[in-house]
Design goal:
alpha/beta, Rossmann fold, 6-stranded mixed beta sheet, 4 helices, 6 strands, 29% helix
């Protein structure tokens, strides 16, 4: 039976480095990002009951953020990379959300601004600032396909720091 409520946990990657000559998609986390990413995991451990799926941008900084954050969660779902999440607009991210697995009640989406911040606003009508390492938890009744403008509720918003 499919869940009756969906919870989307939106995670902006931790602070990245800007090494010369490195393509944007290949930029790694910087020292502050390496300190803050585990704090994201601790926050998720304390505030999100269960995670069924993880979808991430293929950017190195997003990948590293989830690797460090997920250490605090123990064994969890396998992360799936989705090229569409990198440099995506809110409407492009909404397409990704609407195609999430039906069995998943709670999914983490790891990506970038301004798309993530705009997605929270699109879904909830609220405008939380999604700094690096920020987390927003939004929910709505129904399926992933039911994700529409201003239908969701912003349950939580935080910027965990290490």
């Amino acid at each position: 039976m499919a869940p009756t409520k969906r919870r989307l946990v939106i995670v902006r990657h931790a602070k990245s480095a800007w090494p010369a000559g490195v393509a944007d998609i290949d930029r790694p986390l910087g020292p502050r990002g390496r300190r803050d990413a585990p704090a994201i995991g601790r926050w998720l451990h304390d505030h999100v009951e269960h995670i069924d799926a993880v979808v991430s941008s293929p950017a190195v900084r997003a990948e590293q953020t989830w690797e460090l954050a997920s250490d605090a969660l123990g064994t969890g779902p396998r992360r799936r990379f989705d090229e569409r999440v990198y440099a995506a607009s809110a409407t492009e991210l909404l397409d990704v959300v609407r195609q999430l697995p039906a069995k998943a009640a709670t999914t983490v989406l790891v990506g970038h601004n301004p798309g993530l911040e705009d997605l929270v606003t699109l879904l909830t009508g609220e405008e939380p600032v999604m700094k690096t390492s920020s987390v927003a938890v939004v929910s709505w009744p129904g399926s992933w396909a039911d994700a529409t403008s201003r239908r969701a509720r912003l349950e939580q918003h935080a910027t965990p720091r290490g």
